[in-house]
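#structure-requests
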Amino acid sequence: MPKGDIYATTRRWEQGTMTVEPPKLTGRHQDVLNHVLAGPLSHNVEWREIVALLRQVGSVEERHDGNLVVRAGDQTLELGHHHQKDVGTDDLEKLRHFLKALGYR
């Protein structure tokens, strides 16, 4: 089963309607998530840590142009190829919105 399907199978019932919960994260992935979602955008989040987090959240496809496409639930995120070690503010903002749309807080 592809990793993206794991998200769709994690469910809970709430007030008579079914809602989908995001996958639980542990260890370093949870630390990176907290760092991305906390307060002002940080400039010291490493690209490799973001990619590892995204692989836990959903399916990650690297395109021939180096861009990443991430799919989780009904959300899709595309991030440009990174030549730097750290993730830029624009991509962190996109990532934050993506993670919040998936239910991470």
